[in-house]
Design brief:
Number of helices: 2
Number of strands: 9
CATH topology: Phosphatidylethanolamine-binding Protein
Largest sheet: 6 strands, mixed
CATH architecture: Alpha-Beta Complex
CATH class: Alpha Beta
Radius of gyration: 20 Å
CATH superfamily: PEBP-like
């Protein structure tokens, strides 16, 4: 009898909580697994993927997208730069929800990708110096190790955002649409 009473109170409390005006129920955000064939999480990003080298965007892959994923957004940030929210190295969005990664060397001068069907329509924003596309690691000499965080967001809608947006505009647009997220972090230290 006691079990029935506890269950009844719980059910009533849950029902009241869900229908009470002004109550917010947060959706659970799935954890995405993000990786790169260029570097392991927490390990050094190769010179070829840095602005000191060939400035090639690294290959990235991911898994664990929840049901209902319509698009992805990726933001690369160096939080070690002494600026509010760090320095933005890449903003790429409108990635199709069926994509499972990005190939190496996404051309920075191509605002909307058209080549591979898997990522057709993917759009690039501007990085911290307001230039489009990827800008690889380039910490100043003597600045020590910097961390480069590739943050991936799964979205419940395809927002079809215009090319050339900055991180702030993209993050504002995807707010309320994130149903999954994950990250991989690489490190880089300049020689000299």
């Amino acid at each position: 009898m006691l079990v029935k009473q506890i269950f009844s109170v719980w059910a009533v409390s849950s029902l009241v909580l869900l229908v009470m005006p002004g109550t917010t129920v947060e959706a659970q955000v799935a954890e995405l697994t993000v990786s790169s064939s260029a570097f392991a999480d927490g390990e050094a990003i190769p010179l070829r993927n840095s602005a000191y080298g060939d400035n090639l965007s690294p290959e990235l892959s991911w898994s664990g997208a929840p049901e209902g994923t319509e698009a992805f957004t990726l933001v690369l940030t160096d939080p070690d730069v002494p600026m509010p929210n760090g320095f933005v190295h890449w903003v790429i969005y409108n990635i199709p929800g069926t994509a499972t990664g990005l190939p190496e060397n996404i051309p920075s001068d191509t605002p909307v990708l058209t080549g591979s069907a898997a990522i057709a329509g993917t759009t690039q924003g501007v990085m911290g110096m307001r230039n489009p596309g990827y800008f690889g690691p380039r910490p100043p000499a003597g600045a020590g190790v910097h961390h480069y965080v590739f943050s991936l967001y799964a979205l419940d809608t395809d927002l079809e955002l215009a090319a050339g947006l900055a991180r702030e505009a993209v993050m504002s647009a995807i707010e309320g649409h994130i149903i999954g997220e994950g990250q991989v972090t690489g490190i880089f230290e300049s020689e000299g």
